[in-house]
Amino acid sequence: MIRTIFFYLCFMISFIVTSFFRINVKILTSKGDIKRRDEYVYKVVYIWSRFIMTISGAKVNVIGLENLPKDQTVLFISNHQSNFDIPLLLSSINVSKGFIAKKELEKWPFISTWMKYINCIFMDRDNLRKSAESIVEGINLLKSGYSMVVFPEGTRSKGKPVAEFKGGSFKLATKSKCSIVPLTINGTYKLLESNNNRIKGADIELVIHPPININKLNKEELEKLPEIVHSVISSKYRNC
Predict the structure, then answer these.
(1) Would 174 be classed as within a structural domain?
(2) How far apart are CA 141 and CA 71, in angstroms?
(3) Is the separation of the CB atoms in 87 and 49 below 8 Å?
(4) Structural domain includes residue 171
(5) Parallel, antiparallel, or unpaired for β 202-208 and 179-186?
(6) What domain range includes position 219?
(7) Around 87, how many Cα atoms within 13 Å sit in the side-chain half-sphere?
(8) C-alpha angle with apex 132: 228 to 216, nearest 5 degrees?
């Protein structure tokens, strides 16, 4: 209980502090210096997410950093266990990236503002037309050189086996022709969801798999892409 109180207290203070950094973001935006703005935003978000993971008591082990393509736009595809998955990926993979996130996050004060800064897209999964529009928006961002992250399960597993992947998410890669980097997350649900929403320290593992080059896949492989990526991610998944 003490850790939970401490976490949320620090969580709120962090929002107050980062709100001051938005001044610099607005200044750089008004000057039209998009490159410096993006670099500044990513630095702030990276430091904030590392702080969040630290105060949660997470001990993170990252495997496969050598598999990250250098100077290349990619689509990260990951299983989804917890609300901590986004800060985990922001703090553990030092690559500027946005997320395909659920529509509800757009209503969260402070968080939604910074998510918009890093080119997150808020998807309404209950509206097919809106979902399709979000996918198109993501494809355009990838084509513009912004890496993205998607959780094709569509909801948190909270430690259960990896659910079936929704095929629509893979259009982000097939239409933009960017490589896919599969990610396996183990243990983030132990920080919150398995403790009746109380914060508890836990060992976390993030496995970064070798990239999949979309341009080298044949027609049959492209049709089975969701199953292929699901198999890769599940190969390192520990259901415990």
Answers:
(1) yes
(2) 16
(3) yes
(4) yes
(5) antiparallel
(6) 58-234
(7) 22
(8) 35
> Is 41 within 8 Å of 25 (Cβ atoms)?
yes
pTM for the structure as a whole: 0.93
For residue 134, which of 120, 146, 145 has the smallest C-alpha distance?
Answer: 120
Helices and strands in the chain, H and E counts = 8, 7
Q: Does any domain span residue 149?
A: yes
Average pLDDT, the chain: 92
- DSSP E strands in the chain: the ranges are 58-63, 74-78, 97-102, 121-123, 147-150, 179-186, 202-208
In angstroms, the CA 52 to CA 70 distance is 26
The CATH number of whichever domain residue 141 belongs to comes to 3.40.1130.10
Given a cut of 90, whether residue 155 has pLDDT beyond it is no
Rounded distance, CA 180 to CA 228, Å?
11
Tokens 């993006």 locate to: 38
